[in-house]
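Worked problem 6 (solution included).
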Amino acid sequence: MSAAAARSPLHRTEDPYATLAGWDGEDDAPVAPLSEAEVAAVQRPAATTIREFLSKSDFRSECTRIFLPYVPPHLPRRVPQHQKDFIARNEQRSGKVRYHVAEALRRYDLSTTPGIAPQFNREHQDHWGEQKLRQIEAKIPDED
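Solution. The predicted structure is:
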């Protein structure tokens, strides 16, 4: 803080809005208009590349990452057979479809929610049962 600011009567009031109390809404100095390039830069956001494609190995890894936390601790730490079948069926689909299937799985995944232990907070006996996985698959159509 500068010495001048410390001596200012507005600063001594410790009111954060005190400096605005004397403002009449007029700018002290005129602001130069933006150039066309500056306007274009503000109006056009930077291009972000959204990768809507998953390789087979990335799809397999993502599905395994989602399914494993739901395996009860007293069972071997392996993906159950019906989930392996789900992965095998869907990894044969196109990369774009694999991406959308993985996104659909992420919507139901509780393991990324802080404070939730998925193996103890399942709504049903088998959160990722065969029927649920078939429903997810059916929602994602193949590409034309």
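Discussion: The first helix runs from residue 3 to 7.
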